[in-house]
Amino acid sequence: MNYKSYSDLNTDIRNHIQRISELNIDLVVGVPRSGMAPAYMISLLLNVHCTDIESFIENRPLTSGNTRRVRRELSTPFEAENVLIVDDSINTGNTMEEAVRKARSVFDKHIYALAVYSSKLMHDRVDVFLEFVSQPRVFEWNLFGHQVLKDSCLDIDGVLCVDPTEQQNDDGVLYRDFILNAKPRFLPSYTVFALVTSRLEKYRPETEQWLNKYKIKYDNLIMLDLPSQQERKKLRCYGDHKAGFYQRSGSVLFIESDPFQAKEICELSGKPVYCTDDNHMYMPGYMSLLVNDRINILDRLKGLYDSHFYPLLRESKKILFGVQKRNKR
């Protein structure tokens, strides 16, 4: 599962900004919704106006704010000479093709099409793409509105809602009140395959009531069938519980809030896990790869010592020993 964050998006655009500068763009047009973030990033780096595709087609007036001046002042989009239509990614190319078609129906000057990420090494529906990112892939800015959720498992506490405080987590009245009134965090717009939580089975009615309140749709609600929080703490089966269902389910992604549990679920299931708290996609073999890299580095250092430093040290000792013998005489 390939993943790109907002930070990655910014870095990838900056790394390729010279390719975009060569086009002499004086207006950037974003394809809503996902294309607006990279469009604004590019326009700010180029110091030119930015608008969305519908505003461009309708030739709505442009503004640049009171605190900054653009490189070329434009009152309306049609005053531009070179227009860049931007989307975050391209797969089939249908969305970009439609945006370019609409733009060219009302504008007869230069129009370029750019996608930051392409799922193909070559794509004939854009003039420029910046990075190749193969499928399957998800982005930070559309993760909870992506159809991958139909094949994903999500935790509840820390993902869909905030975590309970120690005081609220009393396995009693305060905890029931927390579940019913928990503040939401990331609410999905697709039906989720499974909500996999360490909440106890006895809190199913309250959990279902909260999910219904925020119109969260799901196919499965997997809870821990244990008698008490004390028993759950004693067994410490959080990772096993989540990873076990994830591994058996055929799901392609697990979304977890706690970094430690995210790593554990990834290792136990052998499948990718996205962590909301550290904004990281943990991939199978990640931890073992780190260990192997460390071993490889140590082996190389040892080899370097054996082939270079040790002979040098041995010769230095000989010279030093010879000097000491001469001094004694």
Description of the structure:
This protein has 329 residues and is an alpha/beta fold. The chain folds into two domains: 2-139, Rossmann fold (3-Layer(aba) Sandwich), CATH 3.40.50.2020; 146-286, 3-Layer(aba) Sandwich (Rossmann fold). The chain is built from eleven helices and 13 strands. The strands form three sheets. Strands 10-9-8-11-12-13 form a six-stranded mixed sheet, covered by helices on one side. Strand 11 (253-256), helix 10 and strand 12 form a beta-alpha-beta unit. The radius of gyration is 28 Å and the shape is elongated. It starts with a strand and ends with a helix.
- What global shape is seen? elongated
Succession of helices and strands: EHHEHEHEHEEEEHEHEHHEHEEH
Low-pLDDT ranges = 291-300
| CATH-scheme architecture of the largest domain | 3-Layer(aba) Sandwich
Assembly annotation: single chain
What is the mean pLDDT?
90
How many separate domains make up the residues?
Answer: 2
Number of contiguous helices: 11
Radius of gyration: 28 Å
Main structural class: alpha/beta
Strand fraction equals 15-25%
